[in-house]
Amino acid sequence: MTSPAFGHVVIVGVGLLGASLGLALKARGAAARITGVGRRQASLDTALRTGAIDAGLLDCADAVRDADLVIIATPAAQVVATLDRVRAAAPPHAVVTDVASTKAEICAHAAATWPAPRRFVGSHPMAGSHKFGPEHGDPALYAGAACLVEADPALDPQALDLVHALWNTVGGRVVDIAPETHDAMVARSSHLPHVVAAAVASVAAEAGDIAPFVGPGFRDSTRVAAGRPEVWRDICLTNRAALLDALDAADARLAAFRNALAHGDAAAVEAFFEAGRRARHETVGE
Amino acid sequence: MTSPAFGHVVIVGVGLLGASLGLALKARGAAARITGVGRRQASLDTALRTGAIDAGLLDCADAVRDADLVIIATPAAQVVATLDRVRAAAPPHAVVTDVASTKAEICAHAAATWPAPRRFVGSHPMAGSHKFGPEHGDPALYAGAACLVEADPALDPQALDLVHALWNTVGGRVVDIAPETHDAMVARSSHLPHVVAAAVASVAAEAGDIAPFVGPGFRDSTRVAAGRPEVWRDICLTNRAALLDALDAADARLAAFRNALAHGDAAAVEAFFEAGRRARHETVGE
């Protein structure tokens, strides 16, 4: 690998996450150069203009041919196909990671297809926004974010170290996690809240002109419903089993609450809210 | 009525909402004096110390004897009983309002018991916080907030004007609304989001140590779950029918999503998120 730390970095997908990563690496002088790969020239032009990348290419195989580190930052549903293209074209020493919100399918595919010891290491930085596109790239996007990194004895230790270094460099906190455990946890911490927010927003709007009745609580509760439908479609479809399980758990809690409310059971209604409050406090510490 | 505008104002309940109202009126010199009524001397002392009230009394009847305007800012479940005490003790010219999050039960009780034309006018300012207590009183709490005010031909027009003036004075935007319509709307814009946030927080916490997997989306989505359980118990119990209806609407949407996900129906999954996004945009304009 050439100096600086990460050599020639290729970022496949120059949306919010990819462009922010480019800006964060550039701000720290951590990459010798950064090549962006996009499907649309306009996105590459924006990423070039903001300085997130040094060069932009439409062809993934061309871009990764002399890569030292490849970060796949495409939508979740395209990661597996992109992995195959990168594996076929990148040099053997290249380390590859991704940023997708689900890990089990992607890491299982990599484990089945990559040479051992594996130099693809799955990542999921818990950073983002309902904004999207390279024009919203932010070099501080990963500051303080939990960066969940695949744990597997079959990984190349050097590759694992480099991926850890990547997230530490941009300000994240690395958490090692088995892919299946990852997916079960984020189904509950992230995917379920997105589904529920979309349902709550739709239920409010179907009542007619609800705008005058909306306060800061509704805004906060439904903020994630402003995310891109196609992104959340792909995340849910690549995490079906765990999300179905989380939906069933939510359904059981809501059904119990409904029953308590229908019977005017004040103690059970209060206990439901007390459990939610305690759970949130334990989870986010506020 | 004496000058300034609202004369002797009595605020029954000096929690966040009551103390903030006192501070807002004092900041504008809009009350000749403000008496607070509380159940605990410590709360009254705090409200006195912060300047939210000029005097504090534990006895409601004593306090309202020479009131010009009474604002009932107790928890929702205590409003009806407080109304009876205020009606029996306040002078005939006094105008009375409240700030409770549900209106149908309270306004129906007032309509059945108050002399005509009625000088109790139900209010619900859409302001608040998960913080509580007079120590968090904020003179700007009502700035820009929708203040939902009962619409009913049986109201005394002077009393209605005074309550409109109250909310306009502290920076709110008055919206006239029939109590039943009010309750149906806030069941969807406020009460349902609180219930769902509590369920989501509990589902996350039951998975074990979820803290590393929590991002800003979870924090926003579940913020309202940090509210006081006894407050939300009372709000839900005083708005049962409308909240049960909102819960059923949410259950139907979530069940349809679950079915689409279980069958891998990508178009239906995307349409669900698209509907949520459009609904939120129409509702909050962002």
Q: Return the string of H and E elements of chain A.
A: EHEHEHEHEHEEEHEHHHHH
What radius of gyration of chain A results from the CA coordinates?
Answer: 21 Å
Oligomeric nature of the chains: homodimer
Mean pLDDT of chain A: 95
Helical residues, percent of chain A = 40-55%
Structural class of chain A: alpha/beta
Proportion of strand residues of chain A: 5-15%
Shape category of chain A? globular
Biggest chain pair interface: A-B, 91 and 91 residues
Strand and helix layout:
The structure is a homodimer of 286-residue chains.
Chain A: E1 8-12, H1 16-27, E2 33-37, H2 41-50, E3 55-57, H3 60-64, E4 69-72, H4 79-89, E5 95-98, H5 104-113, E6 120-121, E7 123-125, E8 146-150, H6 157-169, E9 173-177, H7 179-205, H8 216-222, H9 229-237, H10 240-262, H11 266-284
Parallel strand pairs in A: 1-2, 1-4, 2-3, 4-5, 5-6, 8-9
Antiparallel strand pairs in A: 7-8
Helix pairs in contact in A: 4-5, 7-10, 10-11
Describe the structure.
Two copies of one chain form a homodimer. In chain A, the strands form two sheets. A six-stranded parallel beta sheet of chain A has the order 3-2-1-4-5-6, sandwiched between helices. In chain A, strand 8, helix 6 and strand 9 form a beta-alpha-beta unit. The radius of gyration of chain A is 21 Å and the shape is globular. The first copy, chain A, has about 290 residues and is an alpha/beta fold. In chain A, helix 7 crosses helix 10. Chain A has helices at about 15-25, 40-50, 60-65, 80-90, 105-115, 155-170, 180-205, 215-220, 230-235, 240-260, 265-285, and strands at about 10, 35, 55, 70, 95-100, 120, 125, 145-150, 175. Chain A is built from eleven helices and nine strands. Chains A and B meet through helix 7, helix 8, helix 9, helix 10 and helix 11 of A and helix 7, helix 8, helix 9, helix 10 and helix 11 of B.
